[in-house]
Write a structure and sequence with these properties.
InterPro entries: SUKH-3 (IPR025850). With 168 residues, the chain is of the alpha+beta class. Helices cover 21% and strands 22% of the residues. The radius of gyration is 16 Å and the shape is globular. The termini are far apart.
Length: 168
């Protein structure tokens, strides 16, 4: 797993080095991408250089196994037909980050029932969080629109993450 070149200074400032190792709890499946992410980066608290981001505020990321699971995450795990494993908190612990079995990264929080797509893989998701690129909201089955972080999104909006497989 390679880090984007723009991330290296931030990870190094947090204490990371190429020999970094973290003891991953046995409850994390060894064949899930979360195991590799936690083993290589667990225990780091990465902070962006600025609060102002490309599209929104930047987020700090504290990489650690998550102890608590919210019902929202269980519902989305079922919708996405994958296994979501919590591997970090972000935005001063407001958000929880989840990695899917195919390495996609999603974010949830303990205030709303919404989930957002953060990026395709660890490096892309970290770059988006640390540079302030907005998450793409997901619409649950039957939803036609949501208000996500103060913005209205409706079915068909290209900013919504299309998580449902295409038919045909």
């Amino acid at each position: 797993m390679e880090l984007h070149a723009n991330l290296l200074p931030l990870f190094t400032s947090a204490g990371w080095h190429s020999d970094w190792q973290f003891d991953v709890p046995t409850r994390i499946p060894r064949d899930h991408p979360a195991f590799n992410v936690l083993g290589r980066f667990g225990g780091l608290h990465i902070k962006p250089d600025t609060d102002s981001g490309v599209e929104c505020a930047t987020a700090d990321v504290d990489i650690r196994p998550l102890e608590h699971r919210w019902p929202t995450v269980d519902r989305w795990q079922s919708h996405l037909a994958t296994t979501l494993v919590g591997f970090a908190v972000a935005s001063d612990t407001y958000e929880q980050l989840w990695i899917a079995a195919d390495s996609r990264i999603f974010a949830s929080n303990d205030i709303t029932d919404y989930v957002g797509y953060v990026g395709d893989g660890f490096s892309a998701a970290m770059l988006n969080l640390l540079t302030g690129v907005r998450h793409r909201p997901l619409l649950a089955p039957g939803e036609t629109g949501i208000n996500y972080y103060g913005e209205d999104y409706h079915a068909g909006d290209p900013r919504i993450y299309n998580w449902q497989p295409s038919v045909g």
